[in-house]
Each structure stands twice: as structure tokens, then as C-alpha cells.
Amino acid sequence: MGLAFDNLQRAVLEAGPGRLEAVRAGGGSNAGADGEEVPTPSLLYPAPGPCCSSLSPRTPSAWARPFRCLLPGSDARAARQEAPRRSLWEQAGDAGGRGTPGLGQPRGNRTRGSVPGPLGSDLLPTMRWSRPLPRTLWGPGLGRALQPADEHIPFLIHWTWALKGDCTFGPHRVLIRHRGSSVGSGPPSGRHEQLFRSTSAAEAIQRHRRNLAEWFSRLPREERQFGPTFALDTIHVDPVIRESTPDELLRPPSELALEHQLPPARLPTLALSQLFDPDACGHRVQTVVLYGTVGTGKSTLVRKMVLDWCYGRLPAFELLIPFSCEDLSSLGPTPASLCQLVAQRYTPLKEILPLMATTGSRLLFVLHGLEHLNLDFRLAGTGLCSDPEKPEAPAAIIVNLLRKYMLPEASILVTTRPSAIGRIPSKYVGRYGEICGFSDTNLQKLYFQLRLNQPDCGHSAGGVGVSATPAQRDNLVEMLSRNLEGHHQIAAACFLPSYCWLVCATLHFLHAPTPVGQTLTSIYTSFLRLNFNGEMLDSTDPSKLSLMAYAARTMGKLAYEGVSSRKTYFSEEDVHGCLEAGIRTEEEFQLLHVFRRDALRFFLAPCVEPGHLGTFVFTVPAMQEYLAALYIVLGLRKTTLQRVGKEVAELVGRVGEDVSLVLGIVAKLLPLRALPLLFNLLKVVPRVFGRVVGKSREAVAQAMVLEMFREEDYYNDDVLDQMGASILGREGPRCHPEEPPEDEVFELFPMFMGGLLSAHNRAMLAQLGCPIKNLDALENAQAIKKKLGKLGRRVLPPSELLDHLFFHYEFQNQRFSAEVLSSLRQLNLAGVRMTPLKCTVVAAVLGTGKHALEEVNLASCQLDPAGMRTLMPVFLRARKLGLQLNSLGPEACRDLRDLLLHDQCQITTLRLSNNPLTATGVALLVEGLAGNTSLTHLSLLHTGLGDEGLELLAAQLDRNQQLQELNVAYNGAGDTAALALAKAAWEHPSLELLHLYFNELSSEGRQILRDLGGTAEGGARVVVSLTEGTAVSEYWSVILSEVQRNLNSWDRGRVQRHLELLLQDLEDNRGATLNPWRKAQLLRVEGEVRALLQQLGGPGS
């Protein structure tokens, strides 16, 4: 048997490459299983047995890796001692190695400096059994006649054997994390260039590595937002790559469309470094096909692999040549040789192109995006070509590379979408790998940790803002991790690495300084551009329909129907109804088949929430609202009247003009003057249809505005907080699954509609094959403005008002916003948590307006100094500014000083109560008071001034000549400081009222202040208590209302003590007066004070 096989192998080697290709294709037939015509070989090959997928010899080359299949009973020692054989090709290589001497020499006769191939690759591939095999071990076909050629037989037998678990695999490695940065580091030194030993060749490879590294290291703008130190080659999480089988590739597409399946435990997983490892039987793998649906990370994986090679992390390959199949398809049928294609794209490789054929398996071609090429493996369609310098169509060159007819020893990595896998016959593929994404939540957590922990770029609007601290970033990652563990739907969404990117980009947008012009809509549009990039749905379809346009038409329809009926869960009938609506031709069914296999599960995911199993949801909730808005702005929502009426109107309009012109000429000769008048009526039809379309746009605008201003949503969080909660989860107990669900909220839908009409997003949509006409955008904007002008004048709760402003921010049209918001006079955002993003939104929308704002209320908004600097343009338009309860410290007083000193400042009332300004802050504040000419009312209630702060005010008060009211109550000041400030107030020319109540005043001090106030003529009135002499102070309600408003935030014990003193004062004055009217008033005020004491738990009655 061994001798017969050696003779067989020798005959093959002498037959030449054409005969070898025939042997590869399968014997006994003129047509392979894939329809490819092949010559009929005269050699008989045994069918594969249970141990090996194929026993056919490999293509001979000096760099071919040998394999030995030692079956039970074979003599391994004899096999190892077998002398190497040399082929005719190797001998020819010795004579003309083109600068690589010794390539064909035996191991013992190599000259000094020659480098052996990997794993003994200088040996000829041989196979020998040490003794005859029993017939029971021959396997199917060894003792029978020749079977018809079938490309599926070797792989089916191989993978059936693998599934039985008879072979063990190496350790699974699904994660690569490189620490450190390659920025500034060069490619590896020349010590790795074993084949290209000459100095010029080594330098060419080095230049090629540098050029590739520079090109593939360039990140799109969307990636650069994660920080200046973010680099793909240094921080990366590999998705799970599962070794696949031809059996699985033949599954019906319906099983692949709507299921996110985790990798079966019985099939091995692969790392990038393992893709070209020998298969289960030890056979060398030369061609690997990686496939995955949209969003699984094929492009990122290729980019990472190229960068790994550039920096010496893939030592198995000495030369890597990546090709974009989209680039090759753009050349069309224009002939070009492989050498020309390489030289045009990689100039440094020109001088080593003659050596490319001698590189063997250490040359790696990367063919990315095979779905862009139409490959024909039939000999009638694509002839055989083994010369890399012969011009052929690019598709023909790729076919011959994959056939292993051109550069037969080169390694090839192919990436493609699932619908295009069948374009390569499986007999030319050594390994299939399915990119399964992040099927483990630990991979998702690691991805989030690496992405979110990058230092921020700090490019916020106007150049202001601060980056998140490491503690804040860690807290963000921790909250996200907890939500991934408890909220299984977001974990199902992050199964796709692209959605992990979207989650990180959204969190970065919500919590980091926002780059100028970045909007939530632009993030989603960029997300789709990164994943679809204007790709065609099917390159073989003559319509050239873009994948995104098809998704907008089908998934947009489903999304809009869900928004209209207020539902987020869809049955399989709902999905099929939207996908199959209007399909009548075979071409349309083919497009649907491609979409189902390649992109459907990018948009839809099976619901994993209790009570909704068996239904489907959009992968992330906001994607439903985005696609619904896209469906509307693209004009895809058309009624039957609109669809039919448009065609009729255009037809009638064209015919009417022609007929009217002809009859107008004829009517001058014949008495038919009435006919032209009748046909002139036809010209009215297009105008009537235009009005119908306009009414439809107004109806859409009305629905959008009503969704924005729904009264049921008045007490919801603003949309930005809702967005954050959907990703990070909500703190506190979750709702029980059996509780009735709350009404679905679609407040992002109008925001996305406004955002998609912006010029920036329309430009990106045009790149995706979804252009929005300028006229349509203008008419939609006018309809929205008309409805907003009517409904936008109502007084809105703070959260709804912020949503309204966020809509304008997404729209990015200052003229539009200025016209719609011209009636806005009060900006009340009290209680809204003002994050850096929200400050940017408010400043961008209102900072450029011309009219004054009567009041800006930002009380209890968690505002910080950075947010104040962002909002400075809005503050300059305000007449009354409320910044109470914001924990503003002395640092904020520096910005307040600059605000008061600004020449455009028009603030008359400034409320800073309940902020820890302290005396340090007041020292800065009085500098602003000295140069300000507009401020009349200043509240420094409960700001921690103490005696020092009041003394500073007393010393500098006379530098301001416009102040009319000053409130320094509840500041812990004593008698001396209070008396000094009171004297300065009495001498001030314009000050009318000074509040000093709730300070640490003694009874004697309060009495002195009352006496001075009673003797001063024309000076400021000082309020130190609820009484004035034996009467009730006219400011008693102001004092008690302040106490009531701040009862929960002030020191309860301290407030209780002050209220008890006030109660004692009221009781003393009631006993000292005989006026019954005054007694009644004092009793009424006593009742209010006792009620407050009861709330504090003190003596109520």
C-alpha cells in the first residue's frame, strides 16, 4: 500500500499544476459538485476514512507542511526515519530561486544562512503505512469503485468525526488583551524576516508594516471620542469564534434569522492565532472563511489581525497582504494582474513581488467582505490562471487564488456575511469559523471596562467642562455590570459587539464632555454608518439597493407600527407581515432571503423577559424609535391614496399640458374653444395632490408634537435620564414581573425626527443610501414649526421643558429654534439633574437668543462650577437667576463675580441660598457687587458666612449703589457682626430691607437691632424676628415659607431651637399687648410655628 501510494504521489507531481488541480477537484466526472468543470483525472484516489477527512496529497512545494497519519499498529519510528523525497518543482526551485538559494535543498545539504521552513516544511508531503491495513480499517471507498465527485463528502465525514468527540482540541482562547500602547513604537526588527534575507527585501517589508500600521491605526471620528490614548491594537476584546461545519451552513435560513444562539459546547472555539492551526487530523489549513452577521465585528477583527502582524504578534506569516473586496469590485472587469493589484495598493512591495511565489504558506492574503464580489468558479466562467503577472479581472484572480491554482501554498483568510458563504465551494475551504460576538457577559463587562476607563478628550462645547474622574468611571462600569447581571435583555443586546459600542458611545455622550455638534441622533446614525457603510444588500441584484434602505423600509415599518400602537413586543406574525408585505417577484424574495440571513438579528432580538417569551423586541429600545423616525422622514409611510394619487397626478399633469397645448392650436381653426378650458382643469390635479401630501405631513407633525407634550408623561424623567436608566438600570427595588406594565413611553421618537432633519445627519444618511431631499426636509420642518408654535407656548413642567429644548438641540437649526422659542420667557428647570450634557443642551439652544429671559430657575439641579461656565450665555440673558440648593462653593463665586462684572449682565435678582459659599466665596462676590449696576436683590440665606462673611459685607456694602434687598439669614452670625452689617445697611443709599433672622443673636442683640431700626429714619428695615414690637412683622409669612421650603435640608435641631425662640417671642408679645386684633394675629402666627415644630417632632401645643 505504501509503495502504491508513493507511486501515485510521484505521478501527480510529474503531472504539473493543471493535472494537480484536476485531482483536487475530484475524479471521475467532468463537473464538480459546485458546477465547476474539471478535467477527468486518470488517477484513482481512495475516499477518506474515519480518521482523515481526505487522503489526497497536498500541492507540492518546498514550503508545504508534511503530515503523517499513523494509524493503530503503524511503526512511528520507521515513519520518522523515512528519507525525504524531492519533487521536480523543488529541483527547479534550486535552479531558479530568484534570490532565495537553498529553497529546494535537503535539510542536511543546506548552505549556511538558509532557513528551514516551519515544522520541517522542506520535506515533501508523504504518507506511508508500516504494514498493510485490515480491510475493516480501509474506510468507505478504499475497496470499491470510484465514487462520483462530491465536494461535501470530505467535510461531512471530517465534521461528523469531530462531533463524536473522538478528537481532543487545544485550550480555547477567545480573548486577547494587549497591555501598553503601540503608539510611537515601530514594527518588529528584521530578525523575523527569514525568507526575505536581503537588505532591500527586509526594508521593503518593514516599510510595508509601517504603512499598514499607520493606515489601519487611523480611527474614525466616532472612535476618537473614547480618549486620546485609545488604540485598537492595544486594547481589544476578541469576539467568540466558533468552528463551524458545512452541515450547519446548510440549515434553513429561518433558523438563523431570529435566534441568538450561543456556541454549542461540543464545538471548539478559536482565537486569531489558532485559525490556521492544523485541523483535527493534523492536515494543514490554508484557507479560512470567517462569517458573521452585521455587527459581529468582522471589520474590527480584520483590523486587529493586520495590526497584530504589523507589530510582530503573528510570527507565522512573514508577509500579509490585505484586500478589500469592495475595493476590488469597484474595478469591475478591468484586467489587472495580481502583482499590479498589490503594487498599486502597497508600493513598498514592488521590489519583492518576484519573491511572492516563493513565500509559501508564510504569505497571508486577507480578503475582507467577500459579499461584494461576484465569483464564478465554473471553468466556463473563469478560466485557470497560475501566473501572478498575467492581467485578469479581479474576480478571476480571487477565484484562482481560492482554487489554490495561483500561489497554491499561500494562506488565505476570507471574511463574509452568511448569505455569501456559498460563493466559495467548500472543497476550497479548510476551516469555517462563525463570529459569534460576546456570548459571555464577562466579555461584555471587560469590553465596557476597557472602553469606558479611557481618559476623556475634553472637547466639550465651548471648550469648557471637566473630564470624569477615575472614581466616576469606575462607578459607571459597576452600575453597568450590575444591570447586565440583572437585566437579561440588555445582555442579549450586547451579544453583538457593535451594540456594546453603541452602549459605550451613549454613556460617553451622557456622562463625558460633549464634542461640539454631537447629538444622540448623530450617534445612532454614525453607528449605522459604521456597520452598514452604504453596502448593497446583494451585489448580484441589478437594483443595487442599499442594505440600510431595505432595513428602513422593512424594520422602519415595524418600528413605526409599534410606536403608533404603543407596543415594544412583536409576535412572529408581526415580523413576517412587515418583511413580506408587497413581495411579488423572485428578485424580491431573494433580497428578503439575504436580509434575513445577514441583518435581521442586528435589529431584532428574542425577548428574554418573563411573560413575553416567544416575542421579539428591537435590540435596544431606542433603535425602535430611531427607525420609526427614519421611516417617517424618508417618506416611506404612504397611504393608498398617496401611492396611487402621486402616479396619477404626475401622469395627468404631463398629459394635461401636452393636450392643452395641442387643443389650443386647433381651437383657433375650429369652434372648440370650450375644450382647452376643460383640459386646463387637469393642471389643477398636481396641486390638489400636493395639498394632500401637505396635510399628511401636518398630521405626522401633529402626532410628533402630541407625543412630545403628552400630559401623561409630565412627571416622567427627562429623556436623557430615561436613556441612562435604560442602560445603567434604576437603583432600588425592581417591579415584580406579575405587576401590570406601565404605559410605553416613546419620547425619543420626536427627538430623532428632529435630529434626522439636521444637515449633518442627512449627509450621513445619503452615504447609507437613504437620501432625504432638501425640499422634503424643509416641508417637514415647516409643518413641525407650525405645530410647535401652537403647543409650545404652554407652561411645561421642568422635565418636559428640557425635552423640548433637547428636541431643538437635536435639530441643530438655530434659526428654527429662535423662531419657535421666541415666546419663552421663563426657564424653570428646578429639580432637573443638570449633567454636563444637559448644560450643553440648554446653552446651545438658548445661548444665542436675543430676547431676555424673565427668570431662570435652576434650584436643586446639582449644578457645579463647570456647568455654570457652560450656562454663562444663558445667565447673561436672565433678569432673575435662582441657583439655590446646588452645593456651590467658593469656586463658584469666582464665576459669579465674572458674571456680575460682565458688560452684558442684566440680572436684577440673584438667589444663592443654601449653598456653602462661606466667607471665602463672599470675598469674591463683593468684588462683583462693587462693579455691577443691575443687581437689586441678593439672597445669601444659609450660605455659611458666619461673622467673617457678614463683616466683609458690612465693610464693602457701600461700594454698590443699586442693591435694595439683602438676605443673610441663618448664617450663624453673632450680635457684633449683625450689628455692623445693620449699621452699614442703614447708611446705604438704596438698601431697603435686610434679613437677619435665624442668626445666633441674643435677646439683647435682637432688641438692639429693633431699637436701631425704630430710631433710624429713611434707612433699611431689619428683619430679625416674626414680630416688630408687640405687633406681627409684615414679613412673617416670608420667613415661615422659607423655613417650610427648606425644612428637609436644614439642620433640624438648629431649626427647632430657632422656632422655639420665635414661639417664645410671640407668646411674650401676645401677653404684652391689649389690642385684640394684634392678639389674633399673634395667635395665628403661633399656630403656624407650632405646626412647623410638629413636623420637626418638637413641642406642638
Task: Please tell me about this protein's structure.
Among the domains are: 199-437, P-loop containing nucleotide triphosphate hydrolases (Rossmann fold, 3-Layer(aba) Sandwich); 442-518, no CATH class; 799-1033, Leucine-rich repeat, LRR (right-handed beta-alpha superhelix), CATH 3.80.10.10; 1036-1097. With 1101 residues, the chain is an alpha/beta fold. The relative contact order is 0.05. The protein starts with a helix and ends in a 5-residue tail after the last helix. Helix content is 45%, strand content 7%. It contains 42 helices and 19 strands. It is elongated.
CATH topology of the domain at 199-437, which one?
Rossmann fold
Structural class by helix and strand composition: alpha/beta
Strand content: 5-15%
Query: What is the CA-based Rg, rounded?
Result: 40 Å
The whole-number mean of residue pLDDT values reads 75
Largest sheet: 8 strands, parallel
CATH class of the domain at 199-437, named Alpha Beta
- Ends: how far apart? 113 Å
Low-confidence parts: 1-193, 254-265, 457-465, 640-649, 732-741
Using the 3D structure, state the CATH architecture of the domain at 199-437.
3-Layer(aba) Sandwich
- CATH homologous superfamily of the domain at 199-437 - what is it? P-loop containing nucleotide triphosphate hydrolases
> Biggest sheet, strands in spatial order?
10-11-12-13-14-15-16-17
The proportion of residues forming helix, as a percent range, comes to 40-55%
